[in-house]
Every structure is written in structure tokens, then in C-alpha cells.
Amino acid sequence: MSETMLHLRQLEQNILANGRVDGNELEALRRHLYADGKVGRREADFLVERHKRVQHMTPAFEHFFYQTIKHHILTAGRIDVEEAAWLRQMLFADGRIDDEERKFLHELKGEAGQVCREFQALFDECMKQPPEQRTCG
Fold it and tell me: What per-residue confidence (pLDDT) applies to 17?
């Protein structure tokens, strides 16, 4: 296991202990995930798993999560078949698409120089999903 992954596993224990990612944990995540200047697939997978397991989502972690995944996907400036399949698995892990995920897909599509047919199909499918129903109180 790489030193970065070892640090991330230790950080995971802190995150799970307090149920949220903010302040020191967020800064440590940023430092370790971008240790070599880019986020690889192992680090992205790690981040996706933490995102699923965090009990109390903070706006700062939500923003960091989507920006980091976007940087990972757009490393080559385009979205290929493998990345589209990985995104599909990540986005549909909970069986639904929420408003934040739709916004993320719009940003990805807008910033990618080129997208494959599979990404376009994923994008179209997600945009057809009904928006979240939020209630007050």
C-alpha cells in the first residue's frame, strides 16, 4: 500500500469517528489526494466510498468531492468509455440522481473537450430523472 493510501486510511478512521468531513479532515484529504498533483483512480475510488459513508454532509465536503472527481475525470480533457462507465456506477450507486449530481454532469459536459457516446447517453438519462422533491420543515 502506498504511503498516500496509508495516510488516507488513517484519515478515514477520523472521518468515520466524527461522521463528517470539514476543517482539518478536508484539508488533509486535499493534501493526500493531490499529493502528486493529480487524482488517480484509486484515490477517486477512495473518495467516492467516503462520500457514500459520511453521515453528515457539509457543503464544503460536497463541493470538494465534485470538484475532485471532475479533475480526475477531465485529466485528459475528454470523457472516454471507461470514465463514462465509472461515472455511471458512481452516480447510480444509490439508485437515484439528485440535483447536485445533475449539476455536476452539466459542469463535466461543459468543461470536457470531447465526450463519448456512452457519456452522452448517461447525461441524457440523468437529465430525464425527476428533480428532487424537497419539503420545508
Answer: 77
